[in-house]
Amino acid sequence: MEKCIDYAMQNNIQVKQTAVTSQIYSNDNLQSKLNFLPSLEGNLNFNSNYGNSINPQTYTFTSGNSQSASTSLQGSLPVFTGLQQIFNVERTKYELLASKFDYENAKRNIALSVASAYLQLLLNKEILKVAEKQKQLTATQRSTIQSKINSGLLPETSAFEVDAQLARDEVNVVNAKSSIDLGLLQLRQLLQIADEKFDVETPEVKFESVEDVAALSSLSIYEYALSNQPSIMSADARVKSANASRKISIGALSPTIAVFGNISSGYSSQDRKIIGTETKIDSSLGVPIPYQSPIYGNKPFNEQLKDNFRKVIGVSMNVPLFSKWQRVTNIQNAKLQMQIRELQLEGTKNQLRSDIEQAYTNAKAAVQSYLANKKSVESADKSFGAMEKRFNAGMLGSYEFQQAKNSMAVAESEMIKSKYTYVFRQKVLDFYQGKPLKLE
C-alpha cells in the first residue's frame, strides 16, 4: 500500500496540477519582490518621410523625401506607492503558502483514496477465498452424497439441491473475481497505470486492539488537526492574503512618488551644417550690397547623434483626487472578500470537526461490529462442525447441513468486511492525526 501511495503522489494528475499551480504562485511571489527594482526601457525608431514634414531636430517644415531616426533609454524607480508594493509581497507570500498547503492536501487526499481502494481490493480477495472455500465444501458434500447414492442409502433426488447450491457457489466465485477486477481497475485509475496485468500483494492485515480507539477522543484529534491539516492552514493563509489585498486597496488612496531619467538622441537626413561661405549681392535697397551667405552641407550621422544627445532627470508625484469612487469601492470589496475568506476558514474548521467526529464514531462502531462478527464466526464454526459430523453419520439431511454451511459463510464474510472496515476507519483517524498511511 505504501508503494501505491508513493506512486500516486508522483503520477496522479490532480497532484501534478496542484504542484504546477504552486509554481505559478511562486513566480508571482518572486515578481512582487522584483517590482522594487527600477524599470528600464530602450526605444529605437526609423522613419521615411515623403512630402512636407517637420525636421525633428530643428522643428521646421521641409518638403521632399527624408529619413529620420531616434533612440532613447528611459528608466523609472518608484520611491513611494502607499506601501502597495510591500503589501503585494505579503499577499503573494500567503498565496504561495496556501498553494503549498493545497499541494500537501492533494497528496494526502490521494493517499487516503489509494488506501481505501487498496483495502477494498484486499477485502474483495478475502471474499473470493471465502467463496472458493464454500464451493469446495459444497463439492465435498456432493461427493459424500454421491457415495451414499451409489451405496443405496440415499435416492438420486438427494443430489439435486446440492447441485443447485454448487451452481450458486460458482456464481459467487465469479462475482467475487469480478469485484477484484473492478477494484484493480479503480486502483489503476488512481495511480494512472494502464497495464492491465497490474496487481498488488496481499499482506496480512492485523486487527489493532480496541484500546487504540478507546485511548483517543474526537476532540483531541480535532485540536491536533487544527494546526496540522493542510486544508485548515491553506484557508488561514488565504485569510491573511485577503487582509494584504485590503491594505493594498487602502494604499491606492495615497500619493505616489517616483524618480525617472531619460537619455536620447536622433538623426535626420534634412539636418544641415555650415561648411563654408560665399559672397552674394543684396540689391533690395537699390544699392548693391555684398554679404557673406553660409553654404550648408549634410551633417554626418555620428555628429548628429553627438549634437542631439539629451539627458533628463526628474521626480514625479501622482495624487489621486477623484476616480468616480472606484478606489473606495475597491476598499469595500476587499473587506467583503476578506470576510468571505474568514467564513470559508470557519466552514473548513466546522467540516473538519464533523468529519473527525464521524470518522471517530465509525471507528468505534467498526470495532464493536468486528468483535460481534468474530463471536458469530466462532459460533457458526462450532455449529457447522457439529452439523458436519451428524451429516456424515447420516443423522442430518442435506438441506439442514447446507443451511449451516451458508450461515458459516455469511458469518465469515461479515467478519472480514467488518475487519477491513475498521482498518480503513483507523487509517482515516491516522490521516487526521498526520500519521503516514501504512499497514503495520
Strands of the widest sheet, in order across it, are 1-4-5-8
Number of helices: 10
What's the story with the biggest beta sheet?
4 strands, antiparallel
CATH C-level class: Mainly Alpha
Task: Report the oligomer.
Answer: single chain
Give the CATH topology: Outer membrane efflux proteins (OEP)
User: Any idea what the shape is?
Assistant: elongated
* Rg, nearest Å: 43 Å
CATH superfamily: Outer membrane efflux proteins (OEP)
How many distinct domains? 1
What amount of the residues lies in strands? 15-25%
- Count of beta strands: 8
Output the keywords.
elongated, 8 strands, alpha+beta, two-stranded antiparallel ribbon, 440 residues, Outer membrane efflux proteins (OEP)
Report on this model:
This protein is an alpha+beta fold. Helices cover 63% and strands 17% of the residues. The strands form 3 sheets. A 4-stranded antiparallel beta sheet has the order 1-4-5-8, with helices on one face. It has a two-stranded antiparallel sheet with strand order 2-3. Helix 2 runs antiparallel to helix 3 and helix 3 runs antiparallel to helix 7. The chain is elongated, with a radius of gyration of 43 Å.
Question: How would you summarize the topology of this molecule?
Answer:
Blueprint: H1 2-11, H2 13-34, E1 39-49, E2 53-54, E3 61-62, E4 66-80, H3 84-150, H4 158-191, H5 211-214, H6 218-226, H7 230-251, E5 256-268, E6 272-282, E7 289-298, H8 301-307, E8 310-318, H9 326-392, H10 398-432
Antiparallel strand pairs: 1-4, 2-3, 4-5, 5-8, 6-7
